[in-house]
Structures are given as structure tokens and as C-alpha cells.
Amino acid sequence: MDNRAIGYMDSGVGGLTAVKQALYQLPNEQVKYVGDTLRMPYGPRRTEEVAKFALQIGQYLNETDDGIKLLVIACNTATAAGLPLLQEHLPIPVVGVIQPGVESALDTTENNEVGVIATQGTVDSNAYYNGLMAGNPGIDVRQVATPDLVTLVESNLADEAEKQAVVTDQLAELIGTDIDTLILGCTHFPLLSNEIQQAMGDQVTLVNAGAEAINLVEQILDDNDARHGIYPMANHEDDLYFTTGDIEPFQKIAESWLEIPVTVKHLEADDNGLSLSKED
Ligand code: DGL
Predict the structure, then answer these.
(1) pLDDT along the chain (280 residues), means of 10
(2) Based on the number of CB atoms within 10 Å of its own CB, is 271 exposed (0-12), middle (13-18) or buried (19 or more)?
(3) Any idea which residues carry the catalytic annotation?
(4) pTM score
(5) How far apart are CA 27 and CA 230, in angstroms?
(6) Is the C-beta atom of 77 inside 6 A of ligand 1?
(7) Residue 188 C-alpha to ligand 1 middle, in angstroms?
């Protein structure tokens, strides 16, 4: 039994798509989440820089208060850039989202035609391509960078027609191809899954890499006998969400996506790492 929280990190609200699955699948586990909104998007940044930001966040969560028992890098870009680095430097298990997404896509595809939409950083890393090829060298992989979808999610645009137009435009290269499986290789994208499904058609199955990672989290908790003990937290009132950006837009998206009230605090982020803002 380990009553510490599970930590999650992303460049913004994207990692909440992993948290949503965790709230459903591991309802007794406390959540501590950092969205690095100040420094997002991670997609166009250099690999070393993204890895450094991810490590700063992991260290903050691990070293503050009771720490965390496991970190989910709920960001594909940061997983591609920094998973081994964080695993080496943090004294807790660190889970990325790419391999769980790869495995789910390999299980899902029937015609071995798989699409991947992700940030430029994730596409350039070839992490999905290499993972899929390692699992099935006969697979055909089409990777497309769709960075405007990250901005679209963070802007929380209400106009449905405008949203659909941006999604359809970003997916143009994949629409009408033979893919039967599309990996949402950025944790922001499940927030647009209705629009993505609409653009791709019902013959394409969407893979939510962040949500898939929760199976691995569950397995590690069981292997380490580290599930939370009896804990009266059905409403998750002790969960903590941090953003390095503005609290209000983060809180609005988080509450609407997770469908629970959330407490959001502001973190200062600079070259030396993260710290809680004085007013909090
Ligand atoms: N949510 C992130 C991912 O899964 C990154 C989005 C960004 O900051 O570019 O890659």
C-alpha cells in the first residue's frame, strides 16, 4: 500500500485525457498534475529543452510535500524527448504514453494501415514509427504533424463549425486513405475526438495513447503492491492541479473535461525549476 499521489505532467491541459481515464479506472488514487502552460507548446521546441522541462516537473512533484509514487509523462512530445532521462533521474517509476499507444494500435488494426497524428517533435522523433515497426515490420505508417490542434484545444473555442474546419484541414493528408486506426499521438487530441472521428469517418478507430497508459500504471501499482489504501476520496477533493500559466482558462477546461470541481494553483517556472507562487 502506498498512499502517495500519482503525478502527471503535460505542456498544458492535454494530460487531463490520461487523468480522466485514471479517475475512472483507478478512482481511489490521488492526482497531482502539472500543466506547463507558460512554456507550451512543447511540439516545436528542441528535444533537450523539452526533456529538461519534463525533468523539472518530475522533480518538483517528487520533492514537494509527500512526493508522488509514480509519474505519468502524459505528453507524447515529452515522452519522446525525455522518458529515459526521467527514468534515470527520478527514484520512482516513470510511465510514458507512446509505447501503450503503439501496443493498442497494433492490437486494433486489421489491415496494418495505421495513421499517427502528433506534434512536430513527436513526428520528428519517429518514436511511433519505430515502435510500430518493431511490433510489426509489415505495417504501413502515415505520420502527420497537426500542431494547430494543440492550439485549438488550449483556446477552448466554442464555435463547433470553426473547430470542425480546423480539424478537417489538419487531417487532410489522412482523410480518404486506407488507414483503419489512427493514433492520437498527442494527449491534447482526445479533447477533439468527436471532430476527429467526424473528419475521418466511422471506419477509423481512434487510439487514445494517454488513456492506454493507465493500464500500465495499474499494472505497476499491482506489481509494487502500491495501490492507495482505504481512502475516502470519491470526490477527489485532495487532488491538486498546477499550471505555470493562467489559472482560470486551465480550470475551465479541466472542470469541463473531468466533470468535477478542481483546485488549481499557480507555479512559477524558470531555468532553475518550479516553485509555488507566493499568493498560493
Ligand atoms: N500534449 C502534448 C503531447 O502529447 C504536447 C502538445 C504541445 O505542447 O505541443 O505531445
Answers:
(1) 95 97 94 97 97 98 96 98 98 98 98 98 98 98 98 92 97 98 97 98 97 97 91 75 97 96 95 82
(2) exposed
(3) 75, 186
(4) 0.96
(5) 11
(6) yes
(7) 6
